[in-house]
Design brief:
Elements (H helix, E strand, L loop, with lengths): L4 E6 L2 E6 L5 E6 L2 E2 L17 E3 L5 E2 L3 E4 L2 E4 L10 E2 L9 E5 L3 E8 L9 E10 L2 E10 L5 E3 L2 E3 L13 E3 L4 E2 L14 E2 L11 E2 L6 E5 L9 E7 L2 E7 L5 E5 L4 E2 L5 E2 L3 E5 L5 H4 L4 E3 L4 E11 L1
């Protein structure tokens, strides 16, 4: 079960956050959904839906990495590929720090454990307001040595009631990272999207497109924020993020569980501060010294 369900509201906007993993289970405005949802009594969020990905997003290849020259062995949470996936907090019960009508602040303490030998304090704040949904991450080093980490999230945005294959996708990404299809771990350096099917810098139709793909070099617009958009003739949704979220994973499953008991197509747009396997490559890892904190924001804004 995903535990207690915490609803926050502003006018006709509503979001639901789960105790398990501090995940986003619902966000809607005027009754129109802008993320995929799942039943509150689900055993766990399907396909990572709404999950918080800390202290790394995506995969650690082979569930192995090094810290201060010593090998670390994480649990293989993706056993069929041999990887550790999506961090340490998404199946843990978080505690509520502050709960108000329009926002909720939650926290979790990552303790020293096999494969992760240093403690972190992790916080989440969700706020609904005029602009839509604001999501704020904080990570504080409560140990005695510098800690490298990454942060991500796993929302499945919706363009309201329009099916995915009737929508267009626009990304702020300028590179794509190749993956080994047998492990889904990086198999080379990022390459420019120009002239490839992965160039979503201008909106492209999603009909027939299948992705489980990390994109990089996400560049801020004039307002200093990164913008990704899912649009349809009847409206859409924008996922915006701070410049720290230079990476985004896009996933297009056709077997997302439908509350009615079937399956349907869905689209994950996952803002990430680093690429897959960053604990090994070191690319865009964040490092915080003892006693220091990091914070970053992203959000969802419905489009008319």
């Amino acid at each position: 079960m995903t535990g207690e369900q915490y609803e926050i509201t502003f006018g006709t906007s509503r979001a639901v956050i789960t105790q398990l993993g501090a995940g986003l289970r619902a966000f809607e405005v005027d009754g129109v959904p802008y993320v995929e949802t799942f039943p509150k009594d689900a055993a766990k969020p399907p396909m990572g839906c709404g999950s918080v990905l800390v202290p790394w997003p995506n995969r650690v290849a082979g569930a192995r990495w090094e810290f201060n020259g010593k090998p670390q062995y994480l649990e293989q949470t993706e056993p069929h590929l041999g990887n550790a996936i999506h961090g340490l907090v998404r199946f843990q019960p978080w505690r509520v720090v502050i709960r108000e009508r329009t926002r909720i602040t939650m926290a979790f303490d990552v303790t020293e454990q096999p494969g992760w030998p240093m403690p972190l304090h992790v916080g989440m704040r969700y706020t609904v307001g005029r602009r839509g949904l604001l999501v704020e991450h904080t990570v504080r080093n409560v140990g005695d040595q510098p800690v490298p980490f990454g942060v991500g999230a796993h929302p499945y945005p919706r363009a309201g009631l329009t099916p995915r294959d009737e929508c267009e996708l626009q990304l702020a990404a300028h590179t794509v990272l190749p993956l080994d299809p047998t492990t889904m771990a990086p198999s080379g350096a990022p390459t420019d999207v120009a002239g490839t099917p992965f160039d979503f810098r201008s909106p492209l139709p999603l009909a027939g497109v299948r992705l489980d793909t990390p994109f990089g070099d996400c560049r801020p617009a004039e307002d200093g924020l990164i913008h990704h958009r899912l649009t349809s003739p009847s409206g859409g949704v924008e996922l915006w993020a701070d410049p720290a979220f230079r990476w985004v994973q896009v996933f297009t499953p056709d077997t997302f569980p439908d509350p009615a008991g079937g399956t349907r197509s869905a689209l994950a747009i996952e803002p990430m501060t680093c690429p897959p396997d960053a604990l090994n490559s070191g690319i865009d890892l964040i490092t915080v010294a003892p006693g220091e904190s990091w914070s970053g924001r992203w959000g969802l804004t419905p489009l008319g």
